[in-house]
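Quick illustration for those who missed Monday's session on complexes.
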Amino acid sequence: MSPGKSGIHPAVSDRPLSGLRRSRAVLVTGAGGEMGHALIEALAAREGTSVVAMDIRELEPGVREHCENAFVGDVCDAQLLERLLAMYEVDEVFHLAALLSTRGEFAPETAHQVNVVGTLNLLKLAAEQARSHGRPVKFVFPSSIAAYGIPDLDTKRKAGAVKEDQFLEPHTMYGVNKLAGEHLGRYYEGHYRKLAKDRMERPIDFRSIRFPGIISADTLPSGGTSDYGPEMIHAAAQGKPYACFVRRDTRIPFMTMPDAVDAVLRLAAAPKERLTRCVYNVAGFAPTAGDFERLVLERFPKAKVSFQPDAGRQSIVDSWPEDVNDSAARGDWGWSPRHDLETAFDQYLMPRIAARYG
Ligand code: SER
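Prediction with serine bound:
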């Protein structure tokens, strides 16, 4: 373990810079979020990887201990990003920081700032890094099923598993922002500064996954609209009643957090020549809210689940596909989820949640 990975550290270490070579690192933004928790541990276990984290809040010690350094701040703070890049030679970025779909509808302009301007800042700095060290910077960007916008329920039911280029008219600011992030990444990879004489070809190696709802046994999401799945399970495990904010027949795709982390790592590791696109769907299982209720009641017979749909949040989930077609991810980089709905409960969620809540 490197000295930077143990003990208590200030948010940003004050190591002197002059005369020192910058050390190579992988940057993870939104490191304190749900995916950050799970991904950082897996990244730190990769041989030769030093993780530099960034989050708007101080990291929990369990996450911090896997990082070489941790910066507290905003992805819109260009000065902080520049300071970070003055200290580290970043050759891979996992840009997880975002405001999710429910929170984004309460503050759409703030969501745009964080989700789009923050992404633009990072892409620009990544491109500058690429120029300075003469190699492309890999930029991994989790996008979302929120990038889809299906006009009505009838169309959603008929559409079934949608492909990456269908229904790209999102109804939420978050979805609009994620779609914009995908396009920005594609632009920085293939077209950035098209007319500049001194332009570098392909400074960014941009790779993106449109994630479904994600269920973790260890953390709870906040501010999303797929949150009813994980919330129902965690509430039941704690013996708390749960009022589900969507109808029982609501169907969207989900996957477990270990599968989501596996997808990120597999896509990041895939040989570039195998990739036929920048943005990939990944599917896990596609239960209704009623399927979650059934499994929760089977595993926790005393659980109390009611359905009290919220019209606004329901309309968001109704605009997301019932399922996604992930054949490109399967063919190009060997995507294959470990968990279906039953094994997600029995092999992943139940043992860990039982341990967590006793
Ligand atoms: N989990 C996200 C949300 O609910 C969707 O990707 O906003």
